[in-house]
Amino acid sequence: MIVTFIPQESDDVLSSHYAGENEFDEELEGLSHGNNSPDGDLEPINIDCLPDIFKIDMNNISLEVVVRYNFCDLNVAYKFYYWFGRRT
Predict the structure, then answer these.
(1) Residue 41: half-sphere exposure toward Cβ, Cα within 13 Å
(2) What is the pTM of this model?
(3) CA 41 to chain CA centroid, nearest Å
(4) How many CB atoms lie within 10 A of CB 69?
């Protein structure tokens, strides 16, 4: 067994690295509450199969729409986010 000593300074480096994480969380929090809709509730968009993904215009998609997607299983979600990540 090999044990590596990690100096205490690494905690400071890690905490400074994650310091900006709250800004991103606040941005997503605003999207997840549906602040863009008149009544405050956004209805989920169900994605049941791969052909549903092919119908999505990946060139003109917004983050507000993406957070509403509800995938039937992990394979379909993985395919979507793989293609979405490559397009954006």
Answers:
(1) 1
(2) 0.53
(3) 19
(4) 19
CB atoms within 10 A of CB 28: 11
Q: What percent of the chain has pLDDT over 90?
A: 44
69, 47 in Cβ contact below 8 A? Answer: yes
**Domain range summary for the chain, segments of one domain joined by +:** 9-42, 44-88
User: Which segments within the chain are labelled E, that is strand?
Assistant: 45-47, 69-71
Take residue 16 and report the two structure tokens written for it. Answer: 């400074």
Partners of 69 in the β-ladder: 45
* Residue 10 DSSP SS3: helix
Cα 59 from Cα 87, distance rounded (Å): 7
